[in-house]
Amino acid sequence: MYRKISNYIENYLVGKENKILCIDGARQVGKTYIIRELAKKYYKNYVEINMANDKAGDGLFANVKTIESFYIEVSVIAGDMLGNREDTIIFIDEIQEYPNLLTLLKPLCFDNKYKYICSGSELGLALSNTTLTPMGSIIEKKMYPMDFEEFLIANSVGDTVIKHLKKCFDDRVALDEALHNKILYLFKTYLYVGGMPDAVKTFVETKNVFKIREIQEDIINFYVEDASKYDKKHKLIIKRIYEMIPSNIENKVKRIQYKEIEKIDDVRYTKYANEFEYLISSGIALAALAVSEPKFPLAQSSSKNLIKLYMNDVGLLTNILYKHNINAILDNKTGVNLGAVYETFVAQELKCHDHKLFYFDSKKVGEVDYLIDNYDLLNVLPIEIKSGKDYNSFRALPKLLNNPNYKMTSGLIFSNNREIKKENNIVYLPIYFIMFI
């Protein structure tokens, strides 16, 4: 299945970059598969070492602290497959299992004997906790589940159609009704399948909802299991916060209420800072931070104390909420409020496109679902998401746009509605066009 990150990895593999590429992402997003396929394509000698398996087995690399001892252990596994930098690549999978190897990346980079590529399901977290970080010798690249465009391509939506959709988005022209209905149906399908490659593959091959849900259930269990391995002392709190995400995002007040985690009054973010750091850095949760002043750049006025958490994949969320009853998503007549689902989809899509997530909420003005930095205009782009027929119902967005201090030029509202229209400085768009933001 096509992944956009393939181009980035291929450019690294065929380029002269001396730094080591490290692909960081949550479990099951497809890191190992895509690296393995591309590395085998471009290198005669391909060596893959999974450090999680090594740790559970012989532990060859547990005490490796020098590049000489690293080469010796690699030669034990694949001595007949080691050539030189031009024809040999070593893929170190789940490298975070051995922090000693993270500190070794810098000398391996400077030694320049082989080409290297690494990946890890908690790599970002491990790097932040490593005392001797290999900064300057690595390139860290985030990988996420398949976004909606990749899902369309997996479902045989051709390049011609994708380009037509993009042109319609750019020109602010609505799709014809037949094409709109088709893409909207695929969008709703994506809401229950999600972007985890195994789930997408199973959907494409079988259309079996029960099998898809089994895969998603396994992934959720993997995430909880990984948390217990990482921090046995705090695993129950991590599990509790993770399990709170679906209900929180459905509440009127969607940000995390810290007193609800352990039913303790007068508790602050700092008490659970490590648990939040794990959930976010490991990639299993997406964070949107509140901003007090919606001005560019948003990070300057953001606050970690007011945080909304989303699951990293919308399919995992709908598995928890609706299990195999996909009519809750597909059938408009069920009366189910899909607001939390649509918001999670947008959070996932924006993160896949490397946007940082922010939101605005105040008693005087109201709430705006998302704010993102607009680097072209050096201002802020506010985004509202509507899952029902009330796409004309909002109060905070005009107040932000009409405030001259914020210098916002336009705002976007996404819904199921086919028509595209502009009223003053607010543009109404179909929900699937979020794929081009």
Question: What layout of secondary structure does this protein have?
Answer:
Layout lengths: L4 H10 L5 E5 L6 H12 L2 E6 H6 L10 H12 L9 E6 L5 H13 L3 E6 L2 H6 L9 E5 L5 H7 L4 H13 L5 H17 L3 H10 L2 H22 L4 H16 L8 H4 L10 H9 L3 E7 L10 E10 L2 H9 L4 H4 L8 H14 L5 E5 L3 E9 L4 E7 L10 H6 L9 E5 L5 E3 L2 E5 L7
Parallel strand pairs: 1-4, 1-5, 2-3, 3-4, 6-8, 10-11, 11-13
Antiparallel strand pairs: 6-7, 8-9, 9-10, 12-13
Keywords:
5-stranded parallel β-sheet, 13 strands, 18 helices, single chain, alpha/beta, 437 residues
Write a structural description.
With 437 residues, the chain is α/β, with parallel strands linked by helices. Helices cover 43% and strands 18% of the residues. The chain has an eight-stranded mixed sheet. A five-stranded parallel sheet has the order 2-3-4-1-5, sandwiched between helices. Helix 9 crosses helix 15 and helix 11 crosses helix 12. The longest helix is centred in the middle third of the chain and has 22 residues, at 209-230. The mean pLDDT is 93.
Task: Provide the gyration radius in Å.
Answer: 23 Å
Percent helix: 40-55%
Specify the structural class. Answer: alpha/beta
The profile of the biggest β sheet is: 8 strands, mixed
Q: What's the number of extended β-strand segments? A: 13
Distance between the termini: 22 Å
The average pLDDT value, as a whole number, equals 93
Strand content: 15-25%
The order of strands across the largest sheet is 7-6-8-9-10-11-13-12
Name the assembly state.
single chain
Low-confidence stretches: none
Count of DSSP-assigned helices? 18
Assign an overall shape: globular
